[in-house]
Amino acid sequence: MGALDSTLGSMLIATATNLWFFGLASYQYGLYFRTRKWFFLLDRGESSDKRENWRQVTNDRLPLKATVVVLCALDCTNSALALYTTYYYLVSGFANLATLNTVLWAIPAVILFINASSGITHFFFSWRIFQLTRSHYIFGALLVLQVATVSVGIVTGVHALQVNSFAAYSVVSNILTSWLSLQAAVDILLSALLIWIFRISRTGICSTNAVLNRMMRGALQTGVISSAFSIGYLLSFVLAPGNLIWMVFGYCLGRIYSITLMDTLICRHELKEKLANSHSGGINHSPDAFQLQPSASQGVIRIHTQVQQETDVDPSTLDGKYGC
C-alpha cells in the first residue's frame, strides 16, 4: 500500500462514491420535475382517469416544490465542492507537502451542507408524523431534537472551518461526535415512529396493507441507511483521524438524505396505482378508507374502513394523510 492510499486515495474514492449517489439523486430530481408537467404531455388518447391520476400526483404545494429545489441546489453545490477539493489536492497541490497538509475550506464546509440536508429531511418526516398522529407533543419533541441537532451541526462546521491543518483537525472530534450522535439518534427515532404508525394502521384490506408495507420499507431505509453512514462517519473520524476514510461517509451523507426524501415523493404514483388496480368486480373502497383518524381524547390512531359501490377511484388522500 502506498503512502497516499489512506489520504488522497480515500479522497478520490469519496469523490467517486459521492458522484455515484449524486447521479442517483439527479435521476430522482429529474423524474420529479418531469412529472410536475407530465400530465400535459400525455397522449390525447389516454383515458381521463389516467390524466386525473397524474394531475393529482403533480399537484404539489409550493413549499414542497421549494424544498426539492433547495435540496437539489445543496447536492449540486456539495458535489461541485467535492470535485474542486479533489482537483486542488491531486492536481494543483500535487507533490507539494505544504498544500497536502493544509485543510481546504471546502472540506469542513461539507459539514454545513450535510447539516442543512439532514435538517430539511428530518423536518419533512416529522411533519409526516404530525399529519398521521396530530400529536403536538410528539411533533414538538421532534422539533426540539432537530433544533438541537442543527445547532450543534452549525457549531461543528464553524469550528472546523477554523482548523488550518489536517494534523490539528482532530480537535473537532468531541463536537463532531456530539453532532453525528444526535443526527443518528434522530434518524432512528423518526424511522421507528413511522414504522410503528404504519404497523398499527394495518387493516384486513390487502391494497391498504400493500401501501403501508411500502411505506414501512421506506421508513426503515431512511433510518438504517442514514444512521449507518452517520455512525461510519463518526467511527472512521474518531478511530483514524489521520486518514481520510471518513470523507467517504461524509461526502455521501448529504446525498443519502436527499435520496430517501425523494424516494418518498416519487413513490406516490406507484402507491396510487396499487390502490386503483386492486379494485375489481365493481367493489371499490372510498377514499376515506385509507385515512388515519386520531382520537382527540386519547391520541389513539384508528382506521375507518368503508366499502361501497363506486365506478371511480380517487386515492388522492395519500398526499394529505401520508405526507407524500
Helix content: over 70%
The sequence of SSEs as H and E is HHHHHHHHHEEEEH
CATH fold title:
Rhopdopsin 7-helix transmembrane proteins
Sheet with the most strands: spatial strand order: 1-4
Mean pLDDT: 80
CA-based shape: elongated
Assign the structural class, choosing from mainly alpha, mainly beta, alpha/beta, alpha+beta, or little secondary structure. mainly alpha
- Fraction of residues in β-strands: under 5%
The CATH class turns out to be: Mainly Alpha
Radius of gyration: 23 Å
Distance between the termini: 48 Å
What's the structural domain tally?
1
For the sheet with most strands, the description reads: 2 strands, antiparallel
Low-pLDDT regions: 38-44, 280-305, 307-318
Number of helical elements: 10
How many runs of DSSP E, i.e. beta strands? 4
Assign the CATH architecture.
Up-down Bundle
Organism: Dendrothele bispora (strain CBS 962.96)
InterPro entries: DUF6534 (IPR045339)
Transmembrane segments: 12-32, 68-90, 102-125, 137-160, 180-198, 219-238, 244-266
Domain DUF6534: 184-269
